[in-house]
Amino acid sequence: MRCMDIRYPDIAEYRFILDALCGNIFPSFPRFRCEAVASLSEGLEADISFVPAPLAVAKSESHLILSSGSIFSYFSGPIIVAPREEYTELYVPRDDFYSVFFARVFMPGISIKEGDDYPSLLEPRLAILRSPFPYPKIDLYSSWASVASNLPIPIYCGIIRKEMEEAKRIAEDAIRASVKYALNNSDLLIKEIAHIHDVKNVDLLKRVVLNFVNKNTLSMAQEEVEAIQALKRAMDEKHVVLDDLSPL
Questions:
Q1: 149, 173, 174, 179: which is closest to 71 by C-alpha?
Q2: Does residue 1 surpass a pLDDT of 70?
Q3: Are residues 176 and 69 in the same domain?
Q4: Final residue in a domain of this structure, among 148, 166, 192
Q5: Tell me, what DSSP letter sits at residue 164?
Q6: Is 91 inside any structural domain?
Q7: Deepest in the core among 16, 114, 115, 208, taking most CB within 10 A?
Q8: Domain co-membership, 164 together with 209
Q9: Is 248 among the domain residues?
Q10: Longest Cα pair distance anywhere in the chain, in angstroms?
């Protein structure tokens, strides 16, 4: 089988998940050529892409969702950090790939801008990494729970182009092996990733990574499958169309 291309958002969790896979340390699997992207506007030309879950759902006509390599949030949603309770616009940090898509689905009418100003909207991993904040926090898990009860929030999903369907099982197994390797070598990998991302608090980064990378990243359970189905229903009912990669 030919070498497969992978694109993923340049965040610590995916550097962690894909380290072994992208290093091609498994001789029993095909080779993978990986690229970390700083912006989703760089496109989905790869055979395999890891993208915000709403975008993965929106690409269902051309892509299949992989059963391994996904990231869910089980206890919190994106957060708003704001000096006041009323706002008409929110700022999303450049290294937040997810929140703008959450806003498109669950916060219609709110203007979203890129930047580190306040009031801000942050995905769950950044809400932990960047705390404490100068203003009160509002957790948006309730927005998700209104359509999905107590299911976890799909944050990122792996997708593969439909014409690569015959390679889907192999790709899932390879990603699963890479996640297992990462979890077994977490201390070393997280130190390396902290250096790459210039994170000073290695212990905090470890807590964040291992909070979002777990057994369900290895393989989605029924609860995670139902969560993705709930997201699709919400997008269909709200007539959300994600027809581009940079919806700001």
A1: 179
A2: no
A3: yes
A4: 148
A5: G
A6: yes
A7: 16
A8: yes
A9: no
A10: 56
Cβ atoms of 66 and 103 within 8 Å: the answer is no
CA distance 12 to 206: 10
Total domains in the chain come to: 2
Q: Which two tokens stand for residue 169?
A: 């099982």
Whole-number pLDDT of residue 216: 92
Specify whether the CB–CB gap between 67 and 74 falls below 8 A.
no
Sole residue written with tokens 């340049």: 10
pLDDT digits (tens, 9 = 90+) for 31-90: 999 999 988 777 667 999 999 999 999 999 999 999 999 999 998 999 999 998 888 999
**Which residue(s) pair with 89 in the sheet?**
111
| 17-32 tens-digit pLDDT | 999 999 999 999 999 9
Query: Is residue 190 a part of any domain in this protein?
Result: yes
Task: Please name the residue that has the structure tokens 């550097």.
Answer: 15
Whole-structure pTM value: 0.94
DSSP string, 149-193: TTPPEEEEEEEEEGGGGGGHHHHHHHHHHHHHHHHHTHHHHHHHH
For the chain, give the number of residues: 248
Domain hosting residue 90, numbered range? 79-148
